[in-house]
Amino acid sequence: GRGRIVVETAAGVSADTFGEVTFGTRTGCSVVVDDAIAAARHCAIEHDGGFFVRDLGSVSGTWVDGVRIGAPTPLRDGSQIVFGATRITARIEQRLHDGKVVVAAECLLDV
């Protein structure tokens, strides 16, 4: 099955796709964040038999549930992803053959 990834921000839905969503400050990322601390291409959420988050070589790192990740890390329902000044909460809706993760992104700092 393919995993659907939906990203919701305060401004509305900023991504709704299958496969992979990238986050960063650079135009061309799936979700462009206005975040002074985040990298140009910071992290990605991908589906490969389950939902994973991976850091894209950022200096400041990507954190899942308070732990800095070094490899693709599985997301569970309610996982908190933090990068730069942005916090993301994952809500995973799993069906038998297909899954969907709805990711609510918010900026922690007024940057």
Task: Give a written overview of the molecule.
This protein is an all-beta fold and 111 residues long. 0% of the residues lie in helices and 54% in strands. The chain has strands at 3-9, 12-18, 20-24, 31-32, 43-47, 51-55, 62-64, 67-68, 73-74, 80-83, 86-94, 99-107. The strands form 2 sheets. A 7-stranded mixed β-sheet has the order 2-1-12-11-10-7-8, with no helix packed on it. A 5-stranded mixed β-sheet has the order 4-3-5-6-9, with no helix packed on it. Strand 10 and strand 11 (86-94) form a beta hairpin. It is globular, with a radius of gyration of 13 Å. The N and C termini lie far apart (38 Å). The mean pLDDT is 85.
Give a topology summary.
Elements: E1 3-9, E2 12-18, E3 20-24, E4 31-32, E5 43-47, E6 51-55, E7 62-64, E8 67-68, E9 73-74, E10 80-83, E11 86-94, E12 99-107
Concise overview:
With 111 residues, this protein is mainly β.
Mean pLDDT: 85
Name the assembly state: single chain
| DSSP E strands, number | 12
Q: Bin the helical content.
A: under 10%
Largest sheet: 7 strands, mixed
Globally, the shape reads globular
Instruction: List the total number of helices.
Output: 0
Strand line-up in the sheet with most strands: 2-1-12-11-10-7-8
